[in-house]
Amino acid sequence: MMFVAFALFPIAATFGAEAYLIDLFRRIMIFAIAALALDLLVGYGALVSFGHAAFIGIGAYAVGILAASNVSDMIISLPLAIGAAALFAYLTGTICLRTRGVYFIMITLAFGQMAYFFAGSLAPYGGDDGLTLAMRSTLLGFAPFKHDLLFYYIVLGCLVGCYWLCRALVISRFGRVFRGARENPTRMAALGFDVFRYQLTAYTISGALGGLAGFLLANATDFVSPAYMSWHRSGELIVMIILGGIGNLNGAIVGTVAFLLLGEWLSDLTENWEMIFGPLLVVIILLARGGLLGLAAQMAAWYRRENILSVGDFIAAVGRYLRQLARRTIKSTLQTSRSRSRG
Amino acid sequence: MFTYLFIVQTLNGLQFGVLLFLIAAGLTLVFGVMNFINLAHGVQYMLGAYLAVMFYAMTGSMLLALVFALLASLAVGLFLEFVIFRHLYDRDHLDQVIATFGIILFLDQAVKYVWGAAPLSLPIPDMFSGSVVLMPGLIYPIWRLVIIGSGIAVALLLYVLVSRTRFGMLVRAGANNAPMVSALGVNIRRLFMIVFGFGTMLAGFAGIMIAPILSVQPGMGDTILILAFVVIVIGGIGSIRGTFIAALLIGLADTLGRSFAVDFLRLFMAPSPAQVVGPAIASMLIYLMMALVLYFRPTGLFPPKGR
C-alpha cells in the first residue's frame, strides 16, 4: 500500500506541486533503503550498529571516485559500490561481532568514525569539502538518471526490491536462525548453529544494501562528502527506525518518511524547528511503545475499547484518558515522595 | 626545542584527559548504576559553560559564577530526571537513546535561541591568568594547570567517596546488581536521583572549567559526548578507576597524535604523503585504540565484577 502511494505520488505532484517534492521523496526513499538495511540488524538481530552511515558513504564515494576518473558506467560502479560496502562490512563485522550490547554499539561507531576521517583525508577527492560528481552514472551509454521521473521510479524499484529481499531473508530459515540468536545466542549455539557466521552474513548484507543507498544518494545529490558518514547520520538512521517501530520492515519505511517529512515541514515553519522536533521525539517515546506503528496499534485498540464513533465520543474519551493520566501521575509522585521521607 | 614542545603537549594532553574524565565519570556512573544511556550528558556540559558565562555577566565574579552555575546545572539535571528520565529507566536502551537524542536537539537549539549562535567567551579569572615558568624557556598557562589540578582533586574525591563511604558502597553494589540492592531495602530511586544529579554536576563543572579556554558555542557538547563514550567503553562501564585511566590515555593519545603524527610518519615516509596521511591517522587514532581494546577485551579494560 505504501509503495502504491510512492508510485502515485509523482502523478499528483505533476498537478500543481513543485518539482522539489519529487526530489524530497526520492531522498526519503533512498534513506528508507538504508533504514531497511539497519532494521534488519537492529530489529531482527538486536545488533545496534551506530556506524551505518559509513556504508552509505562508501557506496557514494565509490561512485564519486570512479566518476572523477571518468568511469561512470554503472555496470562497473554499481557492483563496486555495493561490493566495497559489503567488504567493509565483512571485515569490520568479524571484529565487531566479538562484542555484545553497548560495546557493539561503540565499536561500530569507532569504525564509522574511522571511515569518516579517512574520507576527510582523501585530498585528491576533495578532502573535508567533498567532491562534486562530474556526471551521473550511465548504463551502457544510456543516462537513466538524467530524467528525474525515471530516476524516481528506479529508486522506488530499488526500495521495493530491498523490501522484498529483507522480507524473504527474515522469514527464511536463515532469518529464523538469525532471529533466534537475537533472543538467545547461547541456545542457538547449543542447537548447533554457528551464530557468528549467521550474524556476519546478515551484517554484510546490511552493509551491501547501505552501499546501494550510497550509490543512489551520490547520483541524486551529484555530490559526495565525508558528512555522509558522520555519526549524526548514523544516529539519525537509528532514530528513524525506532520512530517507525523496530523489528518491522514497514516501520523502517514509515519512520524514515515521518522523520524526514516532519523535519522538512517544521524547518519550513520556523527556524527553531529543532525546539519542537526534540520534545516531540521525547513525547512519542514516552507515550508509544514500539514507535509510530506501535502508537497506531494502540490507538486502534483504544478506539475499539472506547467505542468511538463520532467526534464527540473522541473528545469525551480523550478527556477520560487525560483524567486517568493525571490521577496516575499524582499517585506515583505521592508514592515516591512518601517513600523518600521514609528512606 | 622538541623536548619542550613534547612536555607542553603532554601537559595539554593531560588537561584534555582530565576534562574527559570529569564528563565521563558522570556518564559511567549513570550508565553503570542505572543502566541508562544518557546522550544528553554532552549538552549538560555545554549548559554548564553557558550558565557560567551568564552568571559571570550578572555577578562579575568568577567564584560566584562557578557556584551559581554548578547549582543551576544540578537543578536542570534533577528537573530532567524528574520529568523525563525517570520514566525511561525500565525501558529499552534504544528508547533511552532516542529520547535523550530529542533532548539534545532541543537544548542545542534552545541555547542558540537564548544566547545566539555566535561563540561566547569567558575571561580567565585574574588570579589564574597569565603563565608560569615551569622550566627555563618553558612557560605554561596557569589556568590549564588549574584544570589539571581540579580534575585530579575530583578524581581523588570520587575515589574516597566510592570506596570509603556508605553511599559509595551502595553505588558499587548498584552497579553490580541494582535489583538486589533494592530488595535489601535501599531506596534505589533516591540513589539513582543522587547519582544522576552528581553526574550532571560533574559535566557542568567540566563545562565551567573549560569555558575560559574554549569558545562557548552550541553543539560543543556533541563531539565531547562521543569521546566520553569512547572513554567509558575503553575503561569498562561502571568503573571509575578504568574511566580515569582511559580518559588520560585518550587525552594524551589524541593530543600527542595530532601534534606529532606528521613528524613521526616523516621518519619513514616521503614528506608529502606524510602531510596527507598524518592528520588522518591522528583523527583515527583514538577510534583505532578503542577497536583494538575491544578486540582483545570485549568489555573494556576494567570490567565491573559480577556481570
Describe it.
The complex is a heterodimer of chains A (343) and B (307). In chain A, 77% of the residues lie in helices and 1% in strands. Chain A is mostly helical. Chain A folds into 2 domains: 2-293, ABC transporter involved in vitamin B12 uptake, BtuC; 307-342. In chain A, strands 1-2 form a two-stranded antiparallel ribbon. The termini of chain A are far apart. Chain B has 307 residues and is mainly α. Chain B contains 10 helices and 2 strands, in the order H-H-H-H-E-E-H-H-H-H-H-H. Classes of the chains: A mainly alpha (343), B mainly alpha (307). The interface between A and B is large, with 47 and 49 residues.
Give a quick summary of the entry.
Chain A is an all-alpha fold and 343 residues long. Chain A has 14 helices and two strands.
Query: What would the principal axes of the Cα set say about the shape of chain A?
Result: globular
Number of strands of chain B: 2
Give Rg of chain B in angstroms.
Answer: 20 Å
Low-confidence spans of chain A: none
Beta fraction of the residues of chain A? under 5%
Shape summary of chain B: globular
Compute the separation of the termini of chain B in Å: 49 Å
Structural class of chain A: mainly alpha
* CATH class type of the largest domain in chain A: Mainly Alpha
Quaternary structure type: heterodimer
The H-and-E topology of chain A, N to C, reads as HHHHHEHHHHEHHHHH
Give the helix tally of chain A: 14
* Portion in beta strands of chain B: under 5%
- Main beta sheet strand tally, sense and closure of chain B: 2 strands, antiparallel
Averaged pLDDT of chain B? 85
The percent of residues in helical segments of chain B reads over 70%
Number of helices of chain B: 10
The CATH topology annotation of the largest domain in chain A reads as ABC transporter involved in vitamin B12 uptake, BtuC
Q: What is the CATH architecture term of the largest domain in chain A?
A: Orthogonal Bundle
